[in-house]
Amino acid sequence: MNRMTPEPADHSASPLGPYLATPIKLFIHDRALMQQTAAALKNLGFGQVSAVAVKASFFQAMRQLFGELSGFQGLVLVNHPPKKSQDEAGVSYQDLALAEFYQGVASLNKSSRRSTADLLGCCVPVFIFAQDHDIRLRAVSELFSFGILGAFMLAMQPLGQRKEDAQAEREDELYKYLLEYFQSKGTRQAELKEYKSAEDLAQRRAEAEKLKAEVEELKQAKDFDKAIALCRRITEVLPTDPEAFLEGGRLLVKKRKYPPAMQMFRDAEQVAEDLPAPSQEIASLRIAQVKEHVVQRRQAGQTVNQDQINAWLAEAADSYQNALKKSEKIQALDTDKAQAKRADAQAQIAEAILTQDLADYVGQDNPYVRDLGRLAQATLNEKLKGRGEPEPRHLVQFGLLAFYDGNLDEAESLLVKAAKSPEAFQDACTKLNYIGTQLRRRDKFDGAVRFYRTLLEMKPPFRGVALFNLGVALAAKALSQTKAGSPQAGQTALESLAVCVEALYVDPHLPQDPNFYENRVAQSALSRAKAIFIAAAAAAPAASAPGNDPSALACRQATQKLEELLKAGNQREALHLLYKLTGTLKAYFLDFAQHASPQVQAFAKRLHPMLLNHSQAKMRTFGKVIGILLARGKQAPPPEAPPAGPLHPAFDRTMAALNQGMQAKAARELALALAAKPELLKERAHAGDESLLNLCREIKQKLDGVEVERFQR
Length: 713
Hints:
single chain; mainly alpha; Rossmann fold; 6-stranded mixed beta sheet; two-stranded antiparallel sheet; 32 helices
């Protein structure tokens, strides 16, 4: 046996650094491969490498390897001699016979107290073969039952290749295989203990993936109890996968079931000791308990238990520290990618700390609040800054840090810059919204309004939420101005009402979120808006007023539906609806000129020549009917209550928005006009224009979802 000692070199910065002290034994039959492997390990920095002169016989090598394994603790790279075989025609060939070779070694273990997996678990087969991922996977599957955790299938090198090039390629291959082996060793050992075979593991993974997809569907449906149950099922199917434990724990925290959530996170820690996520989730859980405790005690008029709070915060601080330490161990085959992954993990941890809003619950002077803030700042400044141009996703964290440092201009600038990148857009928008909300809660209303308006300029996917938050900030500002006796209070209140109307026009589902009613300051604006549009929607002109005639109401609803379809560009559906009305709502056609809005009549006019030439007889007949209706409309007298002159100038901005197809903006301008000039409602000044009336009806319908009385609960 030869002992090869490499020249001293500093390889600690390499991703392989933590594993370089591992004893490695080279049991390699192929002489050229032995030389390449030994040189590669030396260059990579492994310090305890020994080589074995392997016997040439397949069966003798079995006994020899068994002897080498006795008492050895480390890694054995095995390239055994091939087995000489003959096919049915008597032609000789050489076969790797991996499973047979290791079965033979295992059979020699009869008198030993060591299990087969314990004996062979340190072995990794190394062989040269035409690169085929499936063949390698089959090899690993065959060896699973022996406790062997990997296989290095090296590429065949071309004849005549320069020795230096061949060595460099081989070294690169071995580097990647060794790093993968060491990083996944713990997981594979756990899998070996848990699963019967490689096939069993593959089946369980497939079942787990299917269940994970179902969990996502249940989360979207807000059915968290069933989602939690499925997460538990996944942990039974695939107990070596930490993600199911983490997801189940997060959902339990959402349900405020803290003890079982903590157990899920502890289990995730056991499954993946080096993963930062479990420690980070434990910290978040403890902070959630602090917040709930403070809120409950305040509501009950009781004093908070400071000792309990400090105990939870101490564990949270330790857990965040552990998460950061674990993030330093994140590795990848590519050094740059490993550094990026570590930076991302550290940025997420810092962001989690900064967005906990602990000071709102335990005070800015609490020592843990200060310590955690310093930890987040140090993490961002030391780990991410000073490394060239920051990644867009990291600009988001820097923007958040600037906000906590009190620099609103820099925070806004960084987040706007980050939002220009598609990968960081959603996160940047979320943080602009977050900062706006934090400023509002701190009674810094101008700052809140500024950040919400900046956010809206970005056209975020949650525009309705952003608009409503702006409306709430304006309402809070108006209340503050009223208390201060400011003459601007009335105008600010009008802006709040108009923006809240726009928010509900954009997203009428907002009132379905329980948090909607936590914003009690918006109650006055929404109550007033509902009253305005109940009256506005009822101000139909005499000629089209539904009165007690249900068919007139049905005709009006039919026109609304047709206009919605035309506005959405669904002309085919509009045609089908118009044709259907000939049989279901004849009153619509008996007085078409009255019931059909100008938009619907223009559509019918476009349809007329096309229908007359339609391939179907029934549609040609329908075309003739349309022609009669249009001709009758030309001869019809004007409505009994025509608009008296042009629309009031107060509606100019509303009409301009409608003409540009900006319905939500039109809703805001209309709300502002009617709220600012109540006399317009008394005069029914909007009733002479069908488009304004329809807009009023749409807004009323969306406001109907607001249960004003819930703000008092």
